[in-house]
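[audit] Reproducing an earlier prediction to check determinism. Same input, same settings, fresh worker. If the tokens differ from the archived copy the diff job will pick it up downstream; this log only records the rerun itself.
[audit] input (401 residues):
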Amino acid sequence: MIHNRYKNIRLAFTTGLAIVILIVTGGCWSSKEINSRAFALTMLIDRTENGEFELTIGFPLPNRMIPGQAGGSGQAKGEPFSFITKRASNIGEALREIQVDMSRTISFGQTRIIIVGRRLAEQGLDPVLEFVNRQPAFHLSANLFVTPQSLRDISYTPLIFERFVSDILRKYINQHVTLDTTVKDFIMAGYQGGDILLPLLSFSKQPEVEAQTSEKERWMGTGGAAIFSKGKMSNVELNPQELRGALWISSQLTSSIVTVNSPSGGEDISCVAQNIGTKLKPVIRGGKVAFQVLSQASAYVLSSNASVDLKDPDKLEKIEDLMEQDIKARLEKVLAKTRKARSDAFLMSQYLDWRYPKVWRKIEPEWREYYAAELPIEVKIKIKLDRTGGITRSVTQNNYK
């Protein structure tokens, strides 16, 4: 009897496991077929001059992505994506206007990029966050960008290396050349006053870029960063060089090229800083709050036009000092701009709350003013130059006889 009971248990377990495997491998989790869906990869939102919302959604076009599907044989012609734009009094109405003209149901399950126009950014992103939070399929890990110009510039971007605009922007983030700011980050910042940094896009005409048509010459690249204060975009911005400093402070930078003048003269020495780590540390001095920005990195020589002997420890130490001074000046300039914008963009208030909660509760009502005008911030940089390359002097300094 015991043997039969174990046999029945094994049979039930095997049957249940088989059913689970069949369900998982079936892949049908919804009543809607994939062929009935239009997957939104990119969402672009701005305000018009008359106060309406302008919503643009970028979709991949399946009939142009698979060879032989548009015309019988060979590669399908035309761009493998399309942008559809509608205007309405709110984002939901604009979405409905787009949906009624489509043969497929719009799905936001693949949306990873949200681009916001300047006019909307200056008024605040509350309508965008409201819309995203009410879409069950929308990922809060979608990245936010701000474009300083027209949203239509996106459609003029030449796709040289990638198939979709969203792929280009994701690569910028993965390569740590711009800020990785998500919808979730913006929502969390809202609980601390709405101060945060968003990456800016830049558009410029590049005739040297070989494009399919003359209209596709507006090259899209990483610009600086938009500084948000109280959830709205400030008129103070970070330029592309200052963006690198912001990445350094927020520990989003994996490596950076630093060029300094040689200790022996005016020649340049370029080094690559890597293994970058930065900490924001609140301290109490004389009963007042202060902050330390502590950063360290290792470095190696990338190129040198100088005659300095890189085997000399004293010379290496001087190069390290020059690099530390250069990076310190960059970070101080970034912090000065956030203070000018009255934006605690690096969320120092959170570090103060975690470390000294009682002190934070006292200073919280006046924190924004204190950060902008009074908060002492000390920047300390430590660079260790541990590799000089295969040669210790510049090749250009050799005397050929």
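[audit] rerun output stored. Observation attached for the diff report: Residues 250-396 form a domain with the GMP Synthetase; Chain A, domain 3 fold (CATH 3.30.300.210).
[audit] end
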